[in-house]
Specification:
Strand content: 25-35%
Number of helices: 8
Strand order of the largest sheet: 3-2-1-4
Order of helices and strands: EEEEEHHEHEHEHEHHEHE
Number of strands: 11
Distance between the termini: 43 Å
Mean pLDDT: 95
Largest sheet: 4 strands, mixed
Radius of gyration: 21 Å
Amino acid sequence: MTSLLLRDVVLDGRVTDVRIDGQRFTGIDPVPPGETADRVIRADGRMAIVPPFYNGHTHAAMTLLRGYAEDLELLTWLADHIWPAEARLTAEDVYAGSRLAILEMIKSGTVYFNDMYWEQAATVRAVIEMGVRADIGLLHISGPDGGVNPRSAASNAELLAMAAELPDRITITHAPHSPYAVSRDQLAWIAADSARTGRRIHIHAAETADEVRDCLSAHGQTPVGYLDSLGLVTDRSVLAHCVHLTDDDRRIISERGAVIAHMPVS
């Protein structure tokens, strides 16, 4: 286990030292002058240390598709452009896109991301190599018949097969795409499995006005209300976007202790 000692860094306006052993901070206090480590960096008061950033919702490999058909409404963008393009991405493409995204995150001081995407084993490979933390989702998308999408089922099985060998900085979550892209039966099963296993849930919700309108038409409830009725809004839930919320939606989210990964632009 290697060690790192940062000497004379600035934290909250005061000069201190930081010691890291392996992947853990083991001290944030002045250390005796004679103490050393495998690597010592002397900042002489010219380096500030700040808490890192966490990326609460991402599709890391989609860095490869950045800017593609981005001037369209969400469902047109997804159905006519993104999903067909993603169908042609290989596992190696996902690995390369994830590495690029992680490099950008590291550059910005982001040390963790919550991911929802296909070919998760490729993303895991990039996370392990790059040394960051991540929640990697079991992607749930239903086909036109309401059944589980075969590609997501296969990649989910591959991810679960790796679970016992993953480092402790990688956690597997449930990542149902959205209220409109996953069947009611599948959403209910995810809620029950999360309650049983404690696995976190990561899902898009109330991303566009059209989504809210369509959910009201199909289920008589807003996306948040619909998800809550199925047991998917809990203190284990991360709800992505949440742009178009009602006061009742806000009350539900607050009472359940769910987390919003807010992005005001879709």
